[in-house]
Specification:
Layout lengths: L3 E4 L1 H10 L5 H4 L3 H4 L6 E6 L2 H7 L5 H11 L4 E6 L12 H13 L4 E4 L10 H9 L3 E7 L8 H14 L3 E5 L7 H14 L4 E4 L7 H10 L4 E4 L13 H10 L8 H21 L12 H5 L3 H13 L6 H14 L9 H15 L8 H8 L11 H8 L17 H8 L6 H9 L1 H25 L1
Parallel strand pairs: 1-2, 1-8, 2-3, 3-4, 4-5, 5-6, 6-7, 7-8
Helix pairs in contact: 6-7, 6-20, 8-9, 9-10, 14-16, 15-16, 19-20, 20-21
The chain binds cobalt (II) ion (CO).
Length: about 450
């Protein structure tokens, strides 16, 4: 038996452990070696990497992708895309989505994993369509969550729809690390029985279940698992590549990975990990095993956000009430998967409901937008009394929210003017106007310094 491994150290592990702050210069030196390891793909772009490059690292994310591509000639390059949200936090018009997807492929991406936080597949259809046209391998992802309305059948049905949309593989995306080994086994088995596409399993070690979950997924016939090289694994990151490789090998499941190369990669990243720990960039807390997430069925990151919010308001003693209120708010909203941005929405509202002593006395503008249908269709029924209370007679958007948005590319291109030198620049600006403009200004300034310097020298 065979299984493929996707290495996440450059994207998800980097994002989960050190807030996506690994600069290209830290990992450029190992890319040629990583290309020889036998990974099916390197997850190296998308997610928060794009924002982080522009905002914190003074790096052009497109240039980073092209550089990775120059080094990595055999292994597929993979990115994570939030459907209609692209890599940002709001819905973008279709013209921006299509151009972004096309440019990602042109600059070197082979595999695009596409998901929507609510599993509203209308929010990924344009990205999926464009990715297929651009010749990418399209991985449709379903966000795994638990709730009274989320059953095995729910996810199998989503898998079938992804297949119908033309996706080339289906990923079970367990962003909170709450999928148990048994569920992984059952879900992979059910998907294998009902759809013909390769099944990919993505989880996190947050609750300690990660490696067991991947092992059972492999046993059930998963085609690909996501792992992180060991020194960047564990905690809120993925299960360790090498450990899974050795365990699976004994079970007769061949990963195709080369052990000496894995060792070389791990040795390369160890000092980077050590430096991050020394500088405080890596908070040891993220390495904890958070089994409370299993008790409360909410992601570890959301739990620590609730604690932080209550601390600020000097109300940490109200945590038990907030933990009781959280699932009620989620129920009112039709059980959205607890992933960005719904996890923040639900958490903030639960805290507000408890501290105000009255439910929904204050309602955030995000919840309003959610109830208006701006994020898409809720998985379950929304509390209609609440919707009426918040929206009054305002109409609810039943269709796809992006259908209400005008094309934007020409407008943003005119807006940023000469500061943008390519379509890629315009897209950076469309996604993150403030940080991208600042990045372009810096770029210009640095160049003028260089010019002055070389004139003087001459
Ligand atoms: Co993840």
């Amino acid at each position: 038996m065979k299984i493929h491994v996707t290495e996440t150290v450059l994207r998800d592990a980097n994002q989960s452990l050190i807030a996506t702050r690994m600069p290209l210069k830290d990992f450029e030196g190992i890319l040629d070696v990583m290309d020889q390891a036998g990974y099916t793909s390197l997850e190296c772009w998308g997610g928060a990497t794009f924002d982080s490059c522009l905002r914190y690292l003074d790096e052009d994310p497109w240039e980073r992708l092209r550089t990775i591509r120059r080094h990595v000639k055999n292994t597929k390059l993979q990115m994570l895309l939030r459907g209609q949200n692209i890599l940002g936090y709001k819905h973008y018009p279709d013209d921006i989505v299509r151009r972004f997807v096309r440019k990602s492929v042109e600059n070197g991406i082979d595999v695009i994993r596409i998901f929507d936080a609510l599993n509203d597949l209308r929010n990924i259809e344009v990205a999926v369509d464009e990715a297929i046209r651009a010749g990418a391998q399209v991985q449709g992802a379903l966000c795994y969550t638990t709730s009274p309305i989320h059953t095995l059948d729910t996810f199998v049905d989503l898998g079938r729809q992804l297949e119908k949309m033309g996706c080339h593989s289906v990923c079970i995306k367990d962003m909170a690390g709450i999928m148990t080994p048994k569920v992984a086994y059952d879900l992979v088995s059910a998907l294998k029985q009902n759809i013909r596409l390769p099944i990919v399993v993505h989880t996190h070690c947050t609750t300690g279940l990660g490696p067991m979950t991947l092992l059972k997924a492999a046993e059930a016939g998963a085609d690909t698992i996501d792992c992180a090289i060991s020194c960047f694994s564990g905690g809120t990151s993925q299960p360790p590549t090498e450990s899974l490789h050795y365990a699976l090998k004994e079970m007769g499941i061949d990963t195709g990975l080369k052990e000496p190369v894995l060792k070389q990669i791990n040795d390369y990243f160890k000092p980077i990990h050590a430096r991050a720990l020394d500088s405080g960039l890596l908070n040891p807390i993220v390495m904890n095993t958070e089994t409370d997430a299993l008790v409360y069925q909410i992601p570890g990151g959301m739990l620590s956000n609730l604690v932080a919010q209550l601390k600020v308001q000097n109300a940490l003693d109200r945590l038990p009430e907030v933990l009781e209120e959280t699932p009620r708010v989620r129920e009112d909203l039709g059980y959205p998967p607890l992933v960005t941005p719904s996890s923040q929405m639900v958490g903030v509202q639960a805290v507000a409901n408890v501290l105000a002593g009255e439910r929904y006395k204050n309602v955030s503008k995000e919840i309003k937008a959610y109830l208006r249908g701006e994020y898409g269709r809720a998985p379950g029924a929304v509390n209609e009394a609440l919707r009426k209370q918040v929206l009054g007679d305002e109409p609810v958007i039943e269709g796809r929210f992006a259908d209400t948005l005008e094309p934007e590319y020409e407008k943003v291109r005119a807006e940023i003017g000469d500061l943008a030198r390519s379509e890629e620049d315009v897209l950076s600006y469309a996604l993150f106007p403030v940080v991208a403009e600042k990045f372009f200004q810096n770029r210009l300034e640095k160049e003028s310094h260089t010019v002055t310097y070389s004139i003087r020298k001459a």
